[in-house]
From TrEMBL:
Keywords: Oxidoreductase. InterPro entries: AKR (IPR020471), AKR_Detox_Biosynth (IPR050523), NAD(P)_OxRdtase_dom_sf (IPR036812), NADP_OxRdtase_dom (IPR023210). One of its GO terms (cellular component) is cytosol. It comes from the Bacteria. It holds the Pfam family Aldo_ket_red. GO terms for molecular function: oxidoreductase activity. This is Aryl-alcohol dehydrogenase-like predicted oxidoreductase. Residues 16-292 form the NADP-dependent oxidoreductase domain. CDD domains: AKR_AKR9A_9B (cd19080).
Amino acid sequence: MRYRTLGPTGLRVSELFLGATSFTARWGPGDPDEYQRMLGTYADVGGNVIDTALAYEESEEVVGALLTGQRDRFVLSTKYTAARDPADPNAAGNHRKNLRLSLETSLRRLRTDHIDLYWVQVWDRHTPVEETMRALDDAVRAGKILYTGFSNAPAWLVARANTLSEWRGWTPFAGIQVPYNLLDRDIERELLPMAHALGLSVAAWRPIAQGALAGLATRPLSPREQTVVSTVQAVAVELNATPAQVAIAWILARSRAIHPIIAATSADQLAESLGSTEVRLPEEAVTRLTAATDFTAGYPADFIAVGEHDPWLYGDTAPLVDPPRAAWPA
């Protein structure tokens, strides 16, 4: 396992994050011993980021118990926004009241006095982003949060929030958390270019598309999706790897900013996914996998990209100019 710094910060985070959504009876094995084996499997290869959320049922309590005696060894990541009490309109959202009470709840469940990486779980359009950023900064200044991130929000909002933070001396978001895999590449339109431009880390959930890319689809696949899955399987055979490993390795090959969040229901399944860091995809394989999705960024990205090499627009030297250092794709 290799490490990268979290966004523009100095915090070292492993290239794969461990998702704790399966540390529940509903979505996982419901076995404390298996949870311990899963954490040990992840730690043994150098993984150091555990990602959970207030909304993941008993996951925070399970993670808190597992980390007893080794809390500082890990980068602890959790989220707020979702309702704590379905009957209370102020027990959900990104406003200051819910942030404070959600944070205190998570600290208690996780048995810790601070959260290393605290995520806003989804954009709450009723709460001004200024209120959220100031409330998060207050929690940082109080020592209850070290770093922050935004999940499930449009690129323009993340950029606005960080610009406001820069102007006002607040703590900016260090990363975004979004779905990304060979079947779901929507973030390449706006979110991924924004993250590259602002130097943010990208935590990618559903890296194997809920099992579909591993050959374990839980729903009928479209012809396009079947083509992608078949290509993943063919590359896996060529490289003596598993389809899940190839799907995750493709994400790692796309950008150093991206950290796939690996969720599993057993230590053996987790070990298989962690093996993706040892898979080196040839450039030809990356190209073939990327082309199989038949994805286009659309307007304005495609229009701008074509125009950058158009002598009519930028002169005869346009084709000789390299892309900007922070541009996506590199």
